[in-house]
Amino acid sequence: MPAHPDRRVLLVAAKTIWRDLLAAHLTREAPDFAITCSDHAPAEPEEGLAPELMVFVLNDNELPEFLRELDSIRAPFPGSSVAVISDCEDPRVVSDAVKAGVEGYLPMSMAADALAHALRILLAGGEFVPSAALVRLAAERSNRQPRSPDSGRAPAPHAAFSRRESDVLALLRHGKANKVIASELKLREGTVKVHVRSLMRKLNARNRTEVAVFAAQPASQEPAVSPTRETRVES
Q: A Gene Ontology biological process annotation (predicted)?
């Protein structure tokens, strides 16, 4: 199967052995991926073609600096998603990575045959993070919501949403990627992105994952997150 032009994956790892092993594995498991490798984050797209997905292999000591520099790292690639493969599985660290803007967090403990599947989800516009981190994000979202003085519960903001925003939010609740939402609602993908940005602003969310976490969490219940079709969690 030839590489697909919309499945350009940049694999960044400082150690040659990681680059070679992961590239060989993905070439075998996902021959439609167009994989390039580097030992550092490039300053600009090669030959004018930005990757759809940038995957960084990092250890726990490298993560803090990477997250601090993430905005500048991804600045030359505004349309690219970012994923991290790391040996750190602390939910607090994963939560920090998601809040910093990482769309995918892939623990090194995950099965090798699940890697290509996770990357396909990210290439489709979805997210992939460990379930423990999603639970933590849901708890933080619950703590940040304003409380009604008479009920002690977070007020439901859905009345402030337009009909289309509510439609998009409902599909985000089920983990649908932008392309899937656009198809189901018969909208342009760019229009869906506008609605997602509006939802992020109204919910004070920093990324799609926080919007999806909010949508999945009833105000009267403890945070609960379950795997769905397009947004996957690694348990």
A: regulation of DNA-templated transcription
| Report for 81-95, 142-156, 192-206: range of highest mean pLDDT | 81-95
Determine phi and psi for 81, rounding to 5 degrees: -85, 155
Give the class (CATH, top level) of 154-234: mainly alpha
Domain with CATH 1.10.10.10 in the chain: 154-234
| 126-146 residue pLDDT tens | 788 876 666 666 666 666 554
Q: Which two tokens stand for residue 222?
A: 């403890």
The tokens for 225 are 């997150």
Range from 76-85, 160-169, 213-222 carrying the lowest mean pLDDT: 213-222
Q: What is the CATH number of domain 8-134?
A: 3.40.50.2300
Q: How many CB atoms lie within 10 A of CB 139?
A: 15
Q: How confident is the model at residue 226 (pLDDT cuts 50, 70, 90)?
A: very low
CATH 3.40.50.2300 spans which residues of the chain?
Answer: 8-134
Quote the pTM value.
Answer: 0.63
Q: What are the residues facing 57 on neighbouring strands?
A: 13, 85
- Cβ contact 120:207 at 8 Å: no
